[in-house]
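Write out this protein's structure.
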Amino acid sequence: MLKELIIHKKRVNVLAGLSFLVMAFAVGNAWSSECETVNFLKNKSQAVQLKNNRCAKNNKVSLGTGFVVAPGGRLWLKVDATKDTDFQLICQNRGEKPVEIKYFSPFLPWIKPEKVVQCDAWINNKLSCSDQKGASSTFICAIAVIKRPQYLQLTTLERTTSVKMRNMVLENHVSEIILDATPENIQTVMKAIQPEVNLCRNLFEVNQAVNASWKLNAVSGQVVKFSIDGKLLEKDFLSCIENVINSFVYPRFSKDVIFVTRL
């Protein structure tokens, strides 16, 4: 797990207490291209406008890129950490005015808010900012290390009897791997989804579990008929979970799959 990030309030520099994983990541990325570090997850972000991005590749962003997050908007970024893990960062604008976030450093935590909000130090991998009127937690961010699902780790994937291979790349899917719709494989996918749901939970400080169900179309790879039971919970939290479910990289199943779970 990612250890506590301790960052000075104004300098926003990561100091002590980082794990070896984070340290190795920082050293490696010091030499990487500015367009090879941070990925803007457009399908998970909402109401975000990019400024001054010099990268031509899809979803890649350059140092100095600004992210203007509208009121009610959500920014979602991903950074490769190791061959089987990613850093993911999400920010939510709960305020009444747009907030601009700048990608200012290739090192954790990569971003800093510009103007409009006044932020505390990063504590427990979270950042909380107040608006100019003094209202607290109008802009919040959270970071987590997310382990990639095993079926995305192609070099280490164990070829079991439930895994079939095709000789063509299937549209909307990341690999050529097809999983049989067994309870074990369905459970594996649900476990892989949970860390991203937990990132939403950490961001919004929600402990209550929610019941959710959705259908995955085997042909299109798209989620249909999503539903979630959380009427008393913050709508932005529920929206965050829905974004996770809808944009998650699923394997290709041999038939349509219905997921029913408690997240």
